Amino acid sequence: MSKKIGVIVFPGSNCDHDAYHALKHIMNADTTFLWHKDHDLRDIDLLIIPGGFSYGDYLRSGAIARFSPIMNAVQDYVKKGYPVLGICNGFQILLEAGLLPGAMLHNEKLRFICKNVHIRVESIRSPFTAGLEKGQVLNIPVSHGEGNYFIGQDGVRQLEENEQIAFRYCNENGDITKEANINGSVSNIAGITNKNGNVLGMMPHPERAMEPILGLTDGIPFFESVLNKLEIA
Amino acid sequence: MLERKIINIFMYKAKVNITLRNSILDPKGKAAHHALQNLGLKPVKDVRIGKYIELNIDATSKDEAYGLAETACTKLLANEVMEDFHITIE
């Protein structure tokens, strides 16, 4: 039986079709939409929580979405060790749901940031990045107002010790600098995994970097890593 | 005769203030502070911006109302990784 990818749709998701298109039409993976009111994840082998503004970002980004019926199933799904990828608002939802540590603050300079940035692969411990090289630089767009990742000092140390930092913002040479830290995130963090390595949250949008005609293609090696290492391709 | 127990339910108002923890930079507050400085309000030394939420709660006692408001805060209204909350019941 072919492996299946599920993309959750919340009221206010707006990158759900981008993720669907990237996986179904470019990566040629069997992909389906899941409604936020669904109660089970059926035969899904990889779950994607896409970007957008679920519930209008009311209260805090992701705060209301985590109470959607499907999120109970997601909690079980993660406990059983299945892989979940949260992109942008998906990352915020995973933080609010307690499936990843830390929280998201407004960007340090308050502006909504929509541009192409460089991120460096910091850990290849999880299957999501295992097909990439440590230190590899990817050019991927970001698009967020609340992407200023926050966690206390002990939290950062734990993330480092457990190799949970998947990506950091860097310059085009791969240097981790203050200038490259677009939103003020602690330790330039752009993406983290949980301790077990089956949940990845990232602010950049790899699904928007899939076709030469649209400018960037570094989402392709990322999704190749995800699909190959999770044996979904 | 069965003894009838009367339970009085009252309406309480919980006033909830949510603020960013002191250790966390508040960029909105900083921007507002900067604007106030430009307005000439030099004695304003710091601005912190938070949220104010009112909850109308049916409960049998003030303590019960407080408990409910506290649950609302810890489960949804505040994110304790970065925010503190303060509840007053009326």
Produce a short descriptive summary.
The complex is a heterodimer of chains A (233) and B (90). Chain A has 233 residues and is of the alpha/beta class.
Distance between the termini of chain B: 38 Å
Shape of chain B: elongated
* Distance linking N and C termini of chain A: 12 Å
Low-confidence stretches of chain A: none
Biggest sheet: strand arrangement of chain A: 2-1-3-4-11-10-9-6-7
Any idea what the CATH superfamily of chain B is called? Phosphoribosylformylglycinamidine synthase subunit PurS
**Overall CATH class of chain A:** Alpha Beta
Low-confidence stretches of chain B: none
> In this structure, how is the largest beta sheet of chain A organized?
9 strands, mixed
* Proportion of residues in helical segments of chain A: 10-25%
Multimerization status: heterodimer
In percent, how helical is the residue content of chain B?
25-40%
Write down the Rg of chain A: 16 Å
Q: What is the CATH superfamily classification of chain A?
A: Class I glutamine amidotransferase (GATase) domain
Tell me the layout of helices and strands.
The complex is a heterodimer of chains A (233) and B (90).
Chain A: E1 4-9, H1 16-26, E2 30-35, E3 46-49, H2 70-79, E4 84-87, H3 89-96, E5 103-105, E6 113-121, E7 137-144, E8 148-150, H4 153-161, E9 165-170, E10 189-193, E11 199-202, H5 219-229
Parallel strand pairs in A: 1-2, 1-3, 3-4, 4-11
Antiparallel strand pairs in A: 5-8, 6-7, 6-9, 9-10, 10-11
Chain B: E1 10-20, H1 27-38, E2 51-59, H2 62-77, E3 83-89
Antiparallel strand pairs in B: 1-2, 1-3
Descriptive overview:
With 233 residues, chain A is of the alpha/beta class. Chain A has helices at residues 16-26, 70-79, 89-96, 153-161, 219-229; strands at 4-9, 30-35, 46-49, 84-87, 103-105, 113-121, 137-144, 148-150, 165-170, 189-193, 199-202. In chain A, strands 2-1-3-4-11-10-9-6-7 form a nine-stranded mixed β-sheet, sandwiched between helices. Chain A has a two-stranded antiparallel sheet with strand order 5-8. Helices cover 31% and strands 30% of the residues of chain B. A three-stranded antiparallel β-sheet of chain B has the order 2-1-3, covered by helices on one side. The relative contact order of chain B is 0.31. At the A-B interface, loops of A face helix 1 of B.
